[in-house]
Structure formats: C-alpha cells, structure tokens
Amino acid sequence: MTGAPTVSDTPWLDQDGQKPLVQIKGVTKKYGDVTAVDNVDLDIYQGELFCLLGGSGCGKSTLLRMLAGFESLNGGSITIDGMDMADVPAYERPTNMMFQSYALFPHMSVEKNIAFGLQQDRVPKNDIVDRVHDILTLVELQDFKKRKPQQLSGGQRQRVALARALVKQPKLLLLDEPLAALDKKLRKQTQFELANIQEKVGVTFIVVTHDQEEAMTLSSRMAVMDAGRFQQIGTPTEIYEFPDSRFVADFIGSANFFEGRVTEDSSDHVRVQTDVAEVYIDHGQSVLVGSKIWVALRPEKIQIVKTDEPVSGPNTVNGVVDDIGYLGETSIYKVALPNGQIVDVTAPNQSRPTSETQRITWEDKVAISWEPSSVMLLNS
User: Which domain covers residue 291, as residue numbers?
Assistant: First the structure.
C-alpha cells in the first residue's frame, strides 16, 4: 500500500462508513472450569489483515476455531457479513481455514490439491481450470503445478496451502500460525509475500500467531490477547509506540521500566521522578501529581556514549557497561545503573570502528539519554 492512509484504508475510524464484515460480541468459551475466551468484543472490516497475537493458552486459536465453526460458543455472538453464525455449520460458513500443518494431500499434484475443494463443491470443470490457473499465477507456482508436495520447499508448500484456501473465494480466510513451519529467514521473506497476496485478492485475513514480528509485519490491525481477553487492539504502530499497559509494552518488543512519581502535570508535558533520573515527557497525559506511574523506554530509543565524567540533567543517567551482545547490524548493551538496575540499549553498527578506543566495551563508563517524545507513560 502506497501513499498516506485514507478513510478507506482505516475503516475502523470511519464511524459513519462501512459496517464490519465480522462482529464478535461478548464471545465466551469455557472448558469445564477453565475460561479460554472471556467475553470479548471485536469488529473486523472488509479487506483487513487482522492478527490475533498472544502466548500459548491465551485463547487466540480457540477464537479462530469459533469463527470457523469448529468450536461452539458458551456466550455471545459471531456475525459474518450480517449473518449470525450461531446455527451455521462450518461447511456452510463463508470462511476457509489454512492450518499450520498445511494438510496437503501427498499423493496429489499441486494443481489437484488446489482444485480439490472446488471439485467437492461441484464447480463446473472449465471454471475449475480457470480458477486454478489464476490462483497458481497469483502465488507464482504455475511452473510447479505437476509436482507433488514432497517435491516442494517449505515456502512453496505454504503457498500451495494458501492457494487452496483462496481458490474457493471465501469472504474470510482464517490462518492458524501460517508461517510457523518455515525457518527464520524464509519466514521473514514470506511475511511480505503473504501481505502482498492478501492486498491483491482483497480477501479479509484473520491470522493467529505468537510471533510479534510476524504480527507487526503482516497486520493492518492486531489484538494482543492474554488470559482470554484483549489487552489492546490497534495498528502495529499504535500498539508498539503507545501501549496501554505494562503487559503490552513488555510483550511487544522489549522495554525498560522505571517506577516513579508524577511531580508535574501540564497540558504539554509531564515530569516524573524515578530512582535513577528525572524524566521529562514533552506530551501531556491525564495523570495526577503525586501518583505512582511506570515509565517505559524502548532500547532503540536510548542513546549511549562513553564518558569519564558524570553527566546530569533530565532524561540522562550514568552507568557502566555490564554486558554486550553483538548482533551484526546492531549491538545490545546492558548498562548497570547506580541503583543496580540493568537497562538494555540497542545501537546500530553504522560504521566499522577504526580502533578499539572508539568501541564501547565491557566496564566502560557511559551516559545514556533519550528524547522527551520517546517516553511511554503507563498507569497499569
């Protein structure tokens, strides 16, 4: 997608515009005394690539299976394209599901795997040929149509499974950990391929994943789940840069946390006194002077410099390098602060050091600092 976002790109912001394709209202699912999904509400719009993100046991896959019709509801309702799904069996829903295992038929060729569902639906033969050809072209597998699944790479099998799900032209495609079987490098490449295919076909995707990077790369919006509930719903930028809680800030990416007390609250700035520094934030937030609050900083938002002389002032702390992780394109510095807290700082390795004196190393005295706009204030 290019250019600035328009209302059509963000239908969830257009209160008077299109109705949601999927409406989840008060949905609850229990297994005995265990509540897997706990009274959740969610609207998803036509053309979205929506990710349900969370750790194992958070309820994301259970919710996906309820959308597909594989699990019953203990409470609430699911509506797809204006139709209540309460009494609609899985095989009659306007959905299709792509499983983590891909579930391809090993004895069938690529084109026969893709055509299988259409044949079961008794689609005319000529239409099957045309639709299989079109979808093979879309996923760039037209030269592999005669091969069997075992003759394909992991990424190619993933695209066959996607093509088989899309060829039936569902209104809603449900994907359960679709990239989990791929190695890390291929998974990164396939994330962009999957997003590009979704944009071309315009089908609404709901993707379940535990991979934060995958959710951030793929989604137009995402919901972070924990203990059967949505902790925050928003775009990747909103959730990463403006988390609602310490849980979300810690779950998405990594963050350093400082507990402090609000000393000044103005319409355009806030001051917080922590154990290690005075923190100045250049944007207003509804907080009470004297209240306890958490300050959070992403490691990449912190600057680090070597210094033999202590540095003072707001948004600045002195420390000593306790450990280093060299990752090639970046380095992670673990900096011990005067109160004993360890802070992670991520710095890009933009140039090669010409001598050891330019390199920050173990036991170096350093000063870390951050911009006032980089601070996240968390009430919970």
Answer: 254-378
